[in-house]
Design a protein that fits this description.
mainly alpha; elongated; 289 residues
């Protein structure tokens, strides 16, 4: 009996020791597992952060590539513009040389002509006037209005009252801001055209329209409107007069409906200032709303 009891007690003690040992190991394992999970979460967080950084780096690369392509396009356009500028510079140089030649001719032609110089076809004054007229026309066509004005004034003083001389001089005076002189010469040109049995219609239209523009710049809005209308009476398809009349109605005469109508007519006829006319129409409509 005593031996059995001893063996049983020993078995119980062994079992208790085993349980205690297992319990201690379980706690260590649980703690280790907890640490592993925490480390795993940290590594997962770092991994996701690295993925975000990688995606951001890829986006940066895409942006840089797009910017590089844009820079390449700009460089190509700049190169094309540079070539165009070189061409324009050559053109300007050529024109400057031509202008210098014409101005030298002007200086030579305006020198006093000896009264006894022989001329089988023309009197000296007539010969000088003809040469100055040709020179003024060349300068005018070259866009050198200051030089053209000097030559054409001399032509006018020498008695040339042709419509071409009057028109060119009026245009050159307007370009220089001499509005009173321009208005005077346009009026003389129109008077000469009206007296002509077969007047030059394109020149008359340009003269009426330009005279209207001068009157408008002088603040004579109603006179300008009358001149534009006179141009349109002679040719309803004269687009510059439609545009100028529309602009005058909108900006100075407070007649927006008629202004829009004139600008629409300019657009419908395919005028050179269609884009500007369309913009003015939109602005007038927005202000009317």
């Amino acid at each position: 009996m005593a031996r059995q009891a001893t063996r049983r007690l020993a078995a119980v003690l062994l079992w208790a020791s085993t349980l205690a040992l297992l319990g201690g190991c379980g706690a260590d394992l649980e703690e280790e597992l907890s640490r592993s999970r925490a480390e795993s979460r940290q590594w997962q967080t770092r991994y996701e952060a690295l993925l975000d950084e990688n995606r951001e780096a890829l986006r940066t690369v895409d942006t840089l590539e797009a910017e590089n392509r844009d820079l390449q396009d700009r460089l190509e356009r700049l190169s094309a513009r540079t070539e165009r500028l070189d061409e324009l510079q050559q053109t300007v140089t050529s024109k400057q040389q031509r202008i210098a030649e014409l101005e030298e001719r002007l200086r030579q032609e305006t020198r006093d002509v000896p009264a006894d110089e022989p001329d089988e076809s023309q009197a000296p004054v007539e010969r000088v006037r003809a040469r100055l007229s040709d020179l003024g026309a060349e300068l005018f066509e070259a866009g050198q209005y200051d030089s053209a004005r000097a030559a054409l004034r001399s032509v006018l003083e020498l008695g040339d009252q042709s419509v071409q001389t009057l028109y060119r001089l009026a245009y050159s005076e307007a370009a220089a801001g001499n509005l009173d002189a321009a208005a005077e010469h346009y009026a003389a040109c129109l008077q000469a055209l009206e007296a002509d049995a077969e007047p030059d219609l394109p020149l008359r239209l340009k003269c009426l329209n330009n005279a209207g523009a001068v009157a408008q710049r002088q603040g004579r809005a109603r006179q300008a409107a009358d001149l534009y209308k006179r141009a349109l009476e002679r040719d309803e398809r004269h687009t510059p007069a439609h545009f100028n009349l529309g602009l005058l109605y909108l900006q100075e005469l407070d007649r927006p409906r008629e202004g829009v109508e004139a600008l629409r007519r300019h657009v419908a006829l395919g005028g050179e200032r269609t884009a500007a006319a369309a913009q003015l129409i939109r602005q007038a409509q927005q202000e009317d709303e």
